[in-house]
């Protein structure tokens, strides 16, 4: 399934953009009218490739009956359903796994994920370097500030000098939280009032890794999107999107598409340790073509980020079995 967000002055123009881009078969997922004027429409279409024309085949040769389909594929299908993977993506993963031949379910799903999803492990040695600027964007409460602290701790443990900048002057306690992190990590902190100051700060940070925290952005607010776009343009780097795991797959994909239009090309998933279902993470990465970079697996700063690879994601998808309903029904009082 492919999703895309369209913006226009009128709803009619936005729907025309949908038809021009996807054709008549597009499904409209949501429409939103902005207080400041204009409309946003999110649409989707099944991305399954058309079947090629059938070629003439020779007459069948008698032979042994085909082997029944392996239970491994059924287990993969059950895992994808449990994690609420959207049907279009689920079918593509199953088709990819089925084409790989006999293997255990983890290996099949690993290779299918590797074929359909991108990965860029930010936790690997050499990925956090002096002179680099990392910009984190995402909705409010996604865990951007904590992720900045975790990246900073990881870099310092590897001997990489770091510097933190924040533009979050709106969230309650945001500056106090980032200041506390910076003090514990013994890292310089810059509070940046205006996006245009980021260019000068980046130039002055050639001797350190610059980690930039931003205020939460509502992806469905035109005003906040424009503010985020200004920050991205001022720093001149492609941002990392930070999204919490466990979110609704369609909504996560819609948000990811908006941030991808702002230049985001990598995704850090937070709260993976506290989420039973990862359909939102996988749907966001696939729909917006974001490379999965790391997962938040602990509230601890020192070891709170883990690498994300096709193998680790396959393990997580398969190993997280369904949980029982957490609330038992109340017993009816016995008549007296």
Record the SSE blueprint.
Layout: E1 2-8, H1 11-22, E2 27-33, E3 39-45, H2 71-82, H3 87-98, H4 105-116, E4 133-137, H5 144-157, E5 162-166, H6 174-184, E6 189-191, H7 197-203, E7 209-213, H8 222-235, E8 240-244, H9 249-261, E9 266-270, H10 279-287, E10 291-296, E11 305-306, H11 310-319
Parallel strand pairs: 4-7, 4-8, 5-6, 5-7, 8-9, 9-10
Antiparallel strand pairs: 1-3, 2-3, 10-11
Helix pairs in contact: 2-3, 2-4, 3-4, 4-11, 9-10
Would you count the extended β strands for me? Answer: 11
Please give the CATH class of the largest domain. Alpha Beta
Helix count? 11
The secondary structure category is alpha/beta
Categorize the overall geometry.
Answer: globular
Task: Name the beta content range.
Answer: 15-25%
| CATH architecture call of the largest domain | 3-Layer(aba) Sandwich
Strand order across the biggest sheet?
A: 6-5-7-4-8-9-10-11
CATH superfamily of the largest domain: P-loop containing nucleotide triphosphate hydrolases
Q: What is the CATH third-level topology name of the largest domain?
A: Rossmann fold
Low-confidence spans: 48-57, 61-69
Give the distance, in angstroms, between the N- and C-terminal Cα atoms. 58 Å
- Domains, number: 3
Largest sheet: 8 strands, mixed
Mean pLDDT: 85
Q: In which range does the helix fraction lie?
A: 25-40%
Secondary-structure element order, as H and E? Answer: EHEEHHHEHEHEHEHEHEHEEH
What would you report as the Rg, rounded to the nearest angstrom?
23 Å
């Amino acid at each position: 399934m492919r999703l895309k967000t369209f913006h226009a002055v009128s709803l009619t123009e936005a729907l025309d953009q949908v038809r021009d881009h996807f054709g008549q078969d597009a499904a409209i997922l949501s429409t939103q009218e902005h207080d400041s004027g204009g409309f946003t429409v999110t649409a989707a279409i099944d991305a399954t490739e058309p079947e090629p024309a059938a070629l003439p085949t020779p007459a069948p040769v008698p032979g042994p009956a085909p082997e029944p389909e392996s239970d491994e594929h059924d287990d993969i299908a059950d895992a994808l359903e449990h994690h609420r993977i959207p049907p279009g993506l689920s079918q593509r993963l199953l088709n990819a796994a089925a084409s790989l031949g006999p293997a255990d379910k983890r290996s099949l799903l690993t290779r299918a994920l590797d074929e359909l999803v991108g990965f860029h492990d930010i936790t690997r040695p050499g990925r956090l370097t002096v002179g680099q600027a990392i910009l984190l964007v995402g909705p409010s409460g996604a865990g951007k500030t904590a992720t900045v602290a975790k990246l900073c701790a990881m870099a310092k443990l590897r001997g990489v000098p770091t510097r933190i900048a924040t533009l979050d002057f709106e969230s309650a306690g945001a500056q106090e939280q980032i200041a506390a992190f910076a003090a514990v990590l013994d890292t310089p902190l810059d509070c940046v009032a205006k996006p245009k100051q980021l260019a000068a700060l980046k130039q002055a940070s050639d001797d350190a890794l610059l980690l930039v925290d931003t205020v939460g952005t509502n992806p469905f607010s035109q005003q906040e999107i424009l503010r985020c776009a200004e920050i991205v343009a001022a720093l001149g780097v492609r941002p990392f999107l930070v999204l919490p795991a466990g979110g609704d797959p369609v909504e996560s994909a819609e948000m990811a598409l908006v941030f991808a239009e702002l230049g985001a090309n990598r995704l850090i998933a937070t709260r993976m340790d506290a989420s039973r279902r990862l359909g939102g993470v996988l749907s966001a990465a696939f729909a917006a073509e974001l490379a999965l970079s790391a997962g938040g697996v602990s509230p601890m700063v020192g070891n709170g980020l883990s690498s994300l690879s096709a193998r680790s994601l396959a393990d997580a998808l398969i190993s997280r079995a369904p949980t029982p309903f957490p609330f038992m029904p109340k017993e009816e009082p016995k008549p007296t």
